[in-house]
Design a protein that fits this description.
This is Scaffold protein Nfu/NifU N-terminal domain-containing protein. One of its GO terms (molecular function) is iron-sulfur cluster binding. Belongs to the NifU family. It is globular and about 50 Å long. The chain is of the alpha+beta class. The strands form two sheets. Strands 1-2-5-4-3 form a five-stranded antiparallel beta sheet. Strands 6-7-8 form a three-stranded mixed beta sheet, with helices on one face. It has seven helices and eight strands. 29% of the residues are buried. The N and C termini lie far apart (38 Å).
């Protein structure tokens, strides 16, 4: 479970040179890796450099190559590596989600072989000053900030503030993230989107209920429940997986 009771670090608010808004560019690049609660996700941390400009206050989830082509040239380079499934680009880290271990026995798709390839790709992108995000996508992100807004009602404002200052930093430490989607005042339901390592982690339900939901309910009395939402592609994938699982169960029952 991703702990939300430990000492939490503040959100990244540091400034850096304007050129870093679009590219990885500096004299050297120090890349460290950190495991996450999800065995199929690995966090690549770049010390003293940042992937996102200060005008973008949340992480960027890139699901696949078609999406990356319009968002992130850096992500396109990483998706060329066999086994890379999705990316979460944070302020000073990238969480890479690879193909699940139980879906492949290919050693080339395991972390010992894949990790050095990812590091090499990041180092090459650094040397060639590959843009992290396109200028157009940065402008889009700036228009859809998740900071509390003056026009928000009091409950929504408080929920956003808690997510941004108390919950998201803890999740980002473990290579994940959470984005606010909406609040239904009639049912007291907060709808969120889990990102990065949190999205496919086996402990995501525990994180959701015992971490995020319990904290929001404790501080905001109007909150009764927290529910995750799925993108259209995730819903289709889940439906296909459920069909396959049912088919396998039926086949096993007839033996």
């Amino acid at each position: 479970m991703l702990s939300l009771t430990r000492s939490l670090t503040p959100r990244f608010q540091g400034a850096f040179p304007r050129f870093a808004k679009l590219t990885l560019a500096a004299r050297w690049l120090s890349i460290q890796t950190a495991t996450t609660p999800n065995e199929n996700s690995l966090k690549f941390i770049v010390k003293d450099h940042h992937f996102l400009p200060p005008s973008v206050d949340h992480s960027v989830d890139v699901e696949d190559l078609p999406a990356a082509s319009d968002k992130s040239p850096l992500a396109v380079s990483l998706f060329k590596l066999n086994g890379v499934m999705s990316l979460l680009i944070g302020p000073d880290f990238i969480t890479v989600n690879k193909v699940e271990d139980d879906l492949s026995n290919n050693p080339e798709l395991q972390w010992p072989a894949l990790k050095p390839k990812i590091i090499d790709t990041l180092e090459t992108a650094f040397k060639e000053k590959t843009p992290v995000l396109t200028t157009e996508y940065i402008r889009e992100l700036e228009r859809t900030q998740e900071e509390p807004q003056d026009e928000d009602d009091d409950v929504t404002y408080e929920i956003k503030e808690l997510l941004n200052t108390r919950i998201r930093p803890a999740l980002q430490d473990d290579g994940g993230d959470v984005h606010f989607r909406s609040f239904d005042p009639h049912t007291g339901t907060v709808y969120i989107k889990l990102k990065g390592a949190c999205k496919s982690c086996s402990l995501s339900e525990e994180t959701l209920k015992n971490g995020i939901e319990s904290m929001l309910k404790y501080y905001v009395e109007e909150v009764n429940e927290v529910k995750p939402i799925l993108d259209l592609e995730e819903e289709v994938s889940l439906q296909e997986f459920e069909k396959l699982e049912a088919k396998l169960k039926a086949s096993s029952a007839t033996r």
